[in-house]
Amino acid sequence: xxxxxxxxxxxxxxxNKIDMKLLKKTFERVQMKDVITYINxxxxxxxxxxxxxxxxxNMLEQAISEDFGLNIKVVVRSLEEYKQVILSLPESWTNxxxxxxxxxxxxxxxxxxxxLDKLTIKEEIDTVKYxxxxxxxxxxxxxxxxxxxxxIVGSKIxxxxxxxxxxTTRKIYELMLSVAN
Length: 181
Hints:
2 domains; four-stranded antiparallel β-sheet; alpha+beta; Alpha-Beta Plaits
């Protein structure tokens, strides 16, 4: 089965530095196959056999701890789960000079549509939707500083998500499809 592992907080602001070539070797060491890394922020596409996502995530977190001495949270999504996020993203959403659009991948512990009730959403500024496994959010660049979603940074919820912009999210899906074929 094809999966993506989304690592939280690596190679950001000079902290938790991990070389992607070495990370690929770590994945291979714990029997992940067809391993592809994408950009430096911890996006790893791979295949794995019989283990559940939870078991895979635990194996990867342990291996990263052993090989790099870092306690990094790993969110694992199957191709089918990831596809549902992609299908929920409006094609018009971009991450460019005009618009900021992100996908906040959720830890299993908070993966429920009630998560929206815990966020500050300014309906006249923010477009926010829950899809299983993620929150998708878009705002015009001119309103980013007015967005209610900026309040998520530093919150308890923020420490239970890993964020990718829509461009990265879409590219990961393309890579997952290439591995599947």
